Amino acid sequence: LPEKLCRRLNVDTTVQEKAITFPTDAKLFYKMREKLVDAAAHRLIPLRQSYVRVGKKSLRMQYQYRHAGQMKRAAKETKKLRTYLGRVTRDIERKSPLIDEKLANQLALSRRLIKQKKTDKNKLYSLHAPEVECISKGKTHKKYEFGCKVAIATTCKEPWVVAVKAIHGNPYDGHTLKETVEKAEEITEVKAETVFADRGYKGKENHPSDIKVFLSGSKRVHGIFKRLLRGRSGIEPIIGHVKNDHRMAKNYLLGELGDKINTVLAGCGFNLRKILRFITLENEPLYAMV
What we know:
- This protein is α/β, with parallel strands linked by helices.
- 49% of the residues lie in helices and 14% in strands.
- Strands 1, 2, 3, 4, 5, 6 and 7 form a 7-stranded mixed beta sheet that branches.
- α2 (25-42) packs antiparallel against α3, α2 (25-42) runs antiparallel to α5 and α8 (235-245) packs across α9 (255-289).
- The radius of gyration is 25 Å and the shape is elongated.
């Protein structure tokens, strides 16, 4: 890309959702107990009780009570499921003389699941993807999304995706600005001069000292910067295309590394499709003649 194009960037964040079911306490307790019972059977650990039948009954009743709006009864069934999980966990810890690494990880997840409360941070939302975070972006149609935050940087004109990065820990948007710009400079090998972002990046202490940062709604912005700031919202449809056309809307790859790989491939896919479109338009008269 031309150097002039890469000196001015639009930056924004979105959420890459993980391919998990909507997490509920009852479902997580039930599935965790099933995993531990299977692990114990595989290692020939005799359990006092597996709670297969009563666990299934409690889960079904919990769903029915919630559907009927009987929340106290539903909470009682959820408490039963937590109790069953705790009993199985302690039974395995008592009776297994040597705990291998895989079983130790499962027991650690179980203890974490039993102890977590409604208001806790860094909760466990999925057993096969414990890195998943609950992120609220203020959307009316989807209050919470379960996955990881993704920072995207694009050029202001002829929009190209110059940086895309999966960031775990659900940080404040402003804290991601510096590493996003550094990633764009590393890829393009061009020093960024101006960045346009939304109000989620407030806080001058988070802005790189050698780069001008303009936020949406800023006053006293004149000349070409005013026009470019109005065009900052052009990054929103690009994010939509990257998510819906290039498979960043839902990630099926495993672990934090899978999150990072999927975001990079989605950004590359957007640029490749743009290149293919240019090639097609250049060769269109030739096809017409044929």
